[in-house]
What does this fold into?
Amino acid sequence: MLRRQIDHFSQNLEEAIDKEEANMVVIHGVGKGRLKNEIFKVLREYYEVRTFRNDYNPLYGYGATEIFFEYEEEGDDF
It folds into this structure.
């Protein structure tokens, strides 16, 4: 079940990146933190992910993480 959840999350993450979204919220629940920890591992693999945070949210409590993206502008060669 965890693998299916991570696959679904990864697909949605890639769609957000393809659309160059500014941010997204993923709801993972509180529980034992296994899903949240796996999501954090995935997020660290994407250079487009500028930062993410699991702060208290009035709608989701601590059961959601907000992800912020940053994209290279065309012509930016470093």
